[in-house]
Amino acid sequence: MDANKKRWTIAAPGYPFILGGVLLVGLGWAMSWPLLVVLGLLGGGFFIYFFRDPERVIPQEEGAVVAPADGKVVFVDEVREDRYLHGPARRLAIFMNVFDVHVNRAPAAGRVVRMEHHPGAFMAAFKHEAGHANEQQTLVLEGEGGRRLLVVQIAGLLARRIAPFVREGQTLARGERIGMICFGSRVDVYFPLESQILVKVGDRVKAGSSIVAKL
Known about the structure:
The chain has 215 residues and is of the alpha+beta class. It is 17% helix and 38% strand.
Protein backbone atom coordinates (compact mmCIF):
# COMPACT_ATOMS: atom_id res chain seq x y z
CA MET A 1 0.00 0.00 0.00
CA ASP A 2 1.25 3.52 -0.80
CA ALA A 3 2.26 5.05 2.55
CA ASN A 4 1.15 8.47 1.32
CA LYS A 5 -2.33 7.29 0.43
CA LYS A 6 -4.50 7.46 3.54
CA ARG A 7 -7.56 5.27 3.93
CA TRP A 8 -10.22 5.73 6.60
CA THR A 9 -12.66 2.89 7.13
CA ILE A 10 -15.20 2.10 9.84
CA ALA A 11 -14.63 -0.81 12.24
CA ALA A 12 -17.38 -3.43 12.02
CA PRO A 13 -18.58 -3.08 15.67
CA GLY A 14 -19.60 0.50 14.85
CA TYR A 15 -22.21 -0.35 12.23
CA PRO A 16 -25.13 -0.94 14.67
CA PHE A 17 -24.41 2.37 16.44
CA ILE A 18 -24.25 4.31 13.16
CA LEU A 19 -27.41 2.60 11.94
CA GLY A 20 -29.15 3.74 15.12
CA GLY A 21 -28.31 7.34 14.24
CA VAL A 22 -29.60 6.87 10.70
CA LEU A 23 -32.86 5.41 12.02
CA LEU A 24 -33.32 8.38 14.37
CA VAL A 25 -32.86 10.77 11.45
CA GLY A 26 -35.39 8.83 9.36
CA LEU A 27 -37.91 8.65 12.18
CA GLY A 28 -37.53 12.34 13.00
CA TRP A 29 -37.92 13.29 9.34
CA ALA A 30 -41.01 11.11 8.90
CA MET A 31 -42.68 12.46 12.05
CA SER A 32 -41.52 16.06 11.57
CA TRP A 33 -39.52 16.07 14.81
CA PRO A 34 -36.49 18.31 14.12
CA LEU A 35 -34.93 17.56 17.51
CA LEU A 36 -34.85 13.83 16.72
CA VAL A 37 -33.21 14.56 13.36
CA VAL A 38 -30.55 16.68 15.07
CA LEU A 39 -29.93 13.99 17.71
CA GLY A 40 -29.62 11.36 14.99
CA LEU A 41 -27.15 13.44 12.99
CA LEU A 42 -25.04 14.25 16.04
CA GLY A 43 -25.08 10.67 17.28
CA GLY A 44 -24.37 9.16 13.88
CA GLY A 45 -21.58 11.63 13.24
CA PHE A 46 -19.95 10.88 16.59
CA PHE A 47 -20.10 7.12 16.02
CA ILE A 48 -18.61 7.45 12.53
CA TYR A 49 -15.73 9.37 14.11
CA PHE A 50 -15.35 7.06 17.10
CA PHE A 51 -15.32 3.81 15.10
CA ARG A 52 -12.84 5.09 12.50
CA ASP A 53 -10.19 2.57 11.53
CA PRO A 54 -7.34 4.31 9.68
CA GLU A 55 -4.54 2.45 7.95
CA ARG A 56 -1.12 2.67 9.57
CA VAL A 57 2.44 2.34 8.25
CA ILE A 58 3.93 -0.56 10.24
CA PRO A 59 7.67 -0.27 11.12
CA GLN A 60 9.78 -3.17 9.86
CA GLU A 61 12.78 -2.82 12.19
CA GLU A 62 13.97 -6.12 13.61
CA GLY A 63 12.98 -6.62 17.24
CA ALA A 64 10.68 -3.59 17.29
CA VAL A 65 7.44 -3.70 19.29
CA VAL A 66 4.69 -1.30 18.25
CA ALA A 67 1.97 0.28 20.36
CA PRO A 68 -1.16 -1.90 20.59
CA ALA A 69 -3.38 1.16 21.02
CA ASP A 70 -3.67 4.87 20.37
CA GLY A 71 -3.49 6.98 23.50
CA LYS A 72 -1.36 8.11 26.42
CA VAL A 73 1.16 5.95 28.30
CA VAL A 74 -0.03 5.80 31.93
CA PHE A 75 2.22 3.10 33.42
CA VAL A 76 5.71 1.80 32.68
CA ASP A 77 6.80 -0.53 35.45
CA GLU A 78 8.01 -3.95 36.47
CA VAL A 79 5.42 -6.36 37.87
CA ARG A 80 4.92 -10.03 38.58
CA GLU A 81 2.53 -11.66 36.10
CA ASP A 82 1.48 -15.07 37.39
CA ARG A 83 -1.64 -15.84 35.34
CA TYR A 84 0.05 -16.32 31.96
CA LEU A 85 3.76 -15.50 32.07
CA HIS A 86 4.42 -17.00 35.51
CA GLY A 87 7.08 -14.57 36.59
CA PRO A 88 8.36 -10.98 36.57
CA ALA A 89 7.72 -8.84 33.49
CA ARG A 90 7.87 -5.28 32.24
CA ARG A 91 4.46 -3.66 31.75
CA LEU A 92 3.39 -0.83 29.48
CA ALA A 93 -0.15 0.55 29.87
CA ILE A 94 -1.85 2.84 27.32
CA PHE A 95 -5.06 4.71 28.15
CA MET A 96 -7.47 5.54 25.32
CA ASN A 97 -9.83 8.46 25.82
CA VAL A 98 -13.09 8.67 23.94
CA PHE A 99 -11.49 10.67 21.10
CA ASP A 100 -8.71 8.15 20.35
CA VAL A 101 -8.89 5.45 17.68
CA HIS A 102 -10.04 2.34 19.56
CA VAL A 103 -8.98 -0.39 17.12
CA ASN A 104 -6.14 -2.34 18.76
CA ARG A 105 -3.21 -3.98 16.96
CA ALA A 106 -0.71 -6.77 17.60
CA PRO A 107 2.46 -5.30 19.14
CA ALA A 108 4.64 -7.99 17.53
CA ALA A 109 4.37 -10.91 15.15
CA GLY A 110 3.49 -14.28 16.63
CA ARG A 111 0.93 -17.00 17.14
CA VAL A 112 -2.03 -16.53 19.45
CA VAL A 113 -1.45 -19.39 21.89
CA ARG A 114 -4.13 -18.38 24.38
CA MET A 115 -7.17 -16.09 24.56
CA GLU A 116 -9.46 -15.59 27.53
CA HIS A 117 -12.25 -13.23 28.54
CA HIS A 118 -12.51 -12.19 32.18
CA PRO A 119 -15.69 -10.49 33.46
CA GLY A 120 -15.21 -7.72 35.99
CA ALA A 121 -15.89 -4.16 37.06
CA PHE A 122 -16.01 -0.97 34.95
CA MET A 123 -13.97 1.52 36.97
CA ALA A 124 -11.96 4.26 35.25
CA ALA A 125 -9.34 2.47 33.14
CA PHE A 126 -6.47 4.83 34.04
CA LYS A 127 -6.60 3.66 37.67
CA HIS A 128 -3.91 1.20 38.69
CA GLU A 129 -6.36 -1.37 40.11
CA ALA A 130 -8.38 -1.48 36.87
CA GLY A 131 -5.69 -3.77 35.44
CA HIS A 132 -6.97 -6.57 37.66
CA ALA A 133 -10.52 -5.60 38.62
CA ASN A 134 -12.04 -4.53 35.29
CA GLU A 135 -13.55 -6.67 32.55
CA GLN A 136 -10.79 -7.69 30.13
CA GLN A 137 -9.73 -9.79 27.18
CA THR A 138 -6.28 -11.39 27.33
CA LEU A 139 -4.18 -12.56 24.41
CA VAL A 140 -0.83 -14.38 24.63
CA LEU A 141 1.43 -14.01 21.57
CA GLU A 142 4.30 -16.45 21.06
CA GLY A 143 7.06 -15.33 18.71
CA GLU A 144 10.42 -16.66 17.60
CA GLY A 145 12.24 -18.83 20.12
CA GLY A 146 9.11 -19.21 22.24
CA ARG A 147 9.27 -15.60 23.46
CA ARG A 148 5.86 -14.51 24.75
CA LEU A 149 4.07 -11.18 25.04
CA LEU A 150 0.82 -10.72 26.95
CA VAL A 151 -1.72 -8.20 25.61
CA VAL A 152 -4.62 -7.24 27.89
CA GLN A 153 -7.57 -5.21 26.58
CA ILE A 154 -9.25 -3.60 29.60
CA ALA A 155 -12.76 -2.15 29.60
CA GLY A 156 -13.16 1.29 31.20
CA LEU A 157 -15.80 3.40 32.89
CA LEU A 158 -17.89 3.79 29.72
CA ALA A 159 -16.82 0.64 27.90
CA ARG A 160 -19.20 -2.28 28.00
CA ARG A 161 -17.93 -4.40 25.13
CA ILE A 162 -14.58 -5.79 24.01
CA ALA A 163 -14.77 -7.13 20.45
CA PRO A 164 -11.94 -9.54 19.43
CA PHE A 165 -11.04 -9.78 15.74
CA VAL A 166 -8.74 -12.83 16.05
CA ARG A 167 -8.93 -16.39 17.37
CA GLU A 168 -6.70 -18.74 19.31
CA GLY A 169 -4.17 -20.50 17.08
CA GLN A 170 -4.06 -17.67 14.54
CA THR A 171 -0.69 -16.31 13.39
CA LEU A 172 -0.50 -12.52 13.38
CA ALA A 173 1.77 -10.02 11.71
CA ARG A 174 3.15 -7.06 13.61
CA GLY A 175 0.53 -4.30 13.60
CA GLU A 176 -2.35 -6.57 12.54
CA ARG A 177 -5.74 -5.65 13.98
CA ILE A 178 -6.68 -7.76 17.01
CA GLY A 179 -9.92 -6.13 18.18
CA MET A 180 -11.40 -3.03 19.72
CA ILE A 181 -12.90 -1.77 22.95
CA CYS A 182 -16.00 0.39 22.70
CA PHE A 183 -15.37 3.79 24.35
CA GLY A 184 -12.74 4.87 26.92
CA SER A 185 -10.47 1.99 27.89
CA ARG A 186 -6.89 0.73 28.24
CA VAL A 187 -4.47 -1.80 26.76
CA ASP A 188 -1.55 -3.29 28.72
CA VAL A 189 1.41 -5.18 27.25
CA TYR A 190 3.67 -7.39 29.37
CA PHE A 191 7.22 -7.92 28.05
CA PRO A 192 10.14 -10.17 29.02
CA LEU A 193 12.40 -8.46 31.58
CA GLU A 194 15.25 -8.09 29.08
CA SER A 195 13.09 -5.93 26.80
CA GLN A 196 13.97 -2.24 26.37
CA ILE A 197 11.02 0.12 26.84
CA LEU A 198 11.43 3.22 24.65
CA VAL A 199 8.53 5.36 25.90
CA LYS A 200 7.71 7.01 29.22
CA VAL A 201 4.61 7.98 31.17
CA GLY A 202 2.81 10.86 29.46
CA ASP A 203 3.94 10.01 25.91
CA ARG A 204 1.25 9.69 23.25
CA VAL A 205 1.47 6.76 20.85
CA LYS A 206 -0.36 5.37 17.81
CA ALA A 207 -1.34 1.73 17.38
CA GLY A 208 0.76 -0.13 14.85
CA SER A 209 3.06 2.77 13.98
CA SER A 210 4.75 3.96 17.20
CA ILE A 211 7.69 1.83 18.32
CA VAL A 212 7.39 1.44 22.10
CA ALA A 213 9.99 -1.24 22.87
CA LYS A 214 12.77 -3.44 21.53
CA LEU A 215 13.01 -7.16 22.23
